Amino acid sequence: MQTLLNKFAEHLQGERQRVLKPVEYARVTRSMGLLIEAVGVRASLGQLCGLQTANGEIPCEVVGFDNNHCHLMPLAAVDGVEPGALLRVPDNAGRHVWLPDCEALLGRVVNGLGEPIDAGGELRRVRTLVCSDSINPMKRAPISDQLDTGVGCINALLSVGIGQRVGLFAGSGVGKSVLLGMLARFVHADVVVVGLIGERGREVQEFVVDNLGSGLARAVVVACPADDSPALRLRGAKLATDIAERFRDKGKNVLLLMDSLTRVAQAQREIGLALGEPAASKGYTPSAFAWLPRLVERAGLGNGPQQGGITAFYTVLMEEDDLQDPVVDAARAILDGHIVLSRQMAEQGIYPAIDVGKSVSRVMPKIVSAEQQALTARFRDLWQTYREQQDLITIGAYRKGSDAHTDEAIFYHRGMCDFVGQGADEQIDCGKAMQDLQALFAEQPHSGADNPIVDMPVTAPQVAADGAQ
Fold it and tell me: Which helix (H) or strand (E) segment is 86 a member of?
């Protein structure tokens, strides 16, 4: 009896292995919009398959299931697909994937699949574990050290800590790419990982050549422009984070720049809508908002002294300069701070166009001195006071002496604008930024000669509130 039971158990084990064995080929039954439907596929979500066409094999990613039908999204343009086309299903399931070797990636530009798109030749690949889990929050090291960004306004008024996640909120054409380039060149980090997700293809070469320049030697660029499929754009965002995590696990301090988080949400929105997911705010599906924290929480400090940290800057596109945009609002809630770029400041020629009043760094009180916090609070107070009285000042309705606090704001206004502004090739470290902030308030409104800004109605360049925001 025992022998029969053993044989039956062996038979069941063999049947299980036979059933779970990946199918080598499947058949395409439907192609509609962004999706391809196939039957006979036994593959896991996120797995890559090869679609056989007259023009060669096209990589496709498994994005969903419906009974025994599998939904896939091609990672390239679909041309030459016919009904009943073969779908190759390789045995690449699981959390181990073939990725380019970390050290070989430095100075290279790759696509969302890790394939080189520059002139540097092929990359050596290694089988590695995909780092897709966030670190236990109780094991993550606390943020305690300030990061020198090389941008004076950020160093002094919006201090960023090593391991912080910060959003750059901006409309189109207000200088976020230039600010990203300054951070990529000036930040003191061992490795810079840049994810250009869903942006114009023309900007890829411009960013690499003009903004990174010689800094490319310590950088890795993952480029997935707007004409890539939504699945490939998502893979590009994940790949950039994977690369940053692998360098962090080697003890490196990594700067992760991702442009933009909005395009990541839009890519997931396209996939969700194609799968029939219900639309929520502004057409975004629930999965689009679920994706953001899963991606962002993978950045930050490691969980031990042997690990480094990932300081991340994510650009967030404010459609119509609206700070209440759903993606902007969701990103503001999950990030450790945000820097808002003002269109009106950019139109006045103030670069970087950082709106100090609308920006905040949530870890700043833990990493800077009490003196710097006091100076920052005074700067913010005077900045906001000027903005509240700006209309009266602009039309000449405000007169000196009507309000002492407003007089003080007008007196320091031009100096505050000069303090925020900085040349794209000018680097201001933390020490210099603090000295400039102290010097700004060293002169008192009534300590010397009359200031022309106080003595007459003001029509000087203003830092205006963004009405559209």
Answer: strand 86-88
Structure confidence by residue, pLDDT tens digits, 290-299: 999 999 999 9
The tokens of 251 are what? Answer: 């003890």
Cα(73)–Cα(65) distance, rounded to whole angstroms?
A: 12
**Alpha-carbon torsion 231, 236, 238, 242, what sign?**
positive
Q: Which tokens go with 141?
A: 């090291």
CB 422 within 8 A of CB 464: no
Rg (CA), the chain: 27
What tokens were used for 336?
A: 């450790």
Report d(CA 112, CA 195) in Å as an integer.
9
H/E stretch holding 176: helix 176-186
Please state, in angstroms and rounded to a whole number, the distance separating the CA atoms of residues 60 and 57: 9
Global pTM value? 0.86
Taking residue 254's Cβ as centre, other Cβ atoms within 10 Å add up to 25
pLDDT classification of 144: cutoffs 50, 70, 90:
very high
Q: Which of 246, 190, 243, 250 is nearest to 215 (CA)?
A: 190
* Residue with the two structure tokens 């899963």: 294
Give start and end residues of each alpha helix (H) in 47-200: 102-105, 152-157, 176-186
**Alpha carbon of residue 297 to chain centroid:** 12
pLDDT digits 0-9 by tens, 217-273: 899 999 999 999 999 999 999 999 999 999 998 999 999 999 989 999 999 999 999
Three-class DSSP category at 30: strand
CA-CA distance, 174 to 171, in Å (whole number)?
6
- Mean pLDDT confidence for 302-322: 88
pLDDT digits (tens, 9 = 90+) for 192-207: 999 999 988 888 988 9
Q: To the nearest whole number, what is the mean pLDDT of the chain?
A: 85
User: Hey, what's the torsion of the CAs at 287, 292, 297, 298, to 10 degrees?
Assistant: 90
137 bridge partner residues: none
Residue whose tokens read 């000295």: 435
Amino acid at site 107: G
Per-residue pLDDT, averaged over 403-421, amounts to 93
pLDDT at 232: 94
Reply yes or no on whether the pLDDT at 448 is more than 90: no
Distance CA 217, CA 187 (A): 14
